[in-house]
Target: ATP synthase subunit I
Amino acid sequence: MANEKNTVKDLEKSILKNMLFADIAIAILSALWMDEPMPFLLGLIFGSAISALNFKELAITLTKAVNMPPEKAQSFTTRKYFLRYIVTAVVIFVSITAPYINIIGTIIGLVMIKFIILATNLFNDKKFYKNILKRKEDETNGR
Model:
């Protein structure tokens, strides 16, 4: 159990670290590409910070829900789910109304963690690539 917990914590740290590296790369590119990169950078930082907090909150929610009875776990996770969406809506609203925060940067920051998780799982799964590269003839000859 403790080994699984460490593995999950290591995965969380890895995802957050990769998100930080991606944010730094995007920040550097935006600084080189844009005339006024500061609103975009503030949006990116704002969105990424909230995304990381939502990710940690999701991990905490799931860890607690596993130890609850099914009915209680379902209502607990549903409440937390809507709370995370309300937080995201508030972040987007603040980004739209604040002139010093770029909405595009905020949205990129908010969805960045989803792309990091997708890329992490996609590039770590060797069977996925074997299935893509498997020829149709191999499937029909194997029958």
Remarks:
- The chain is about 85% helix and 0% strand.
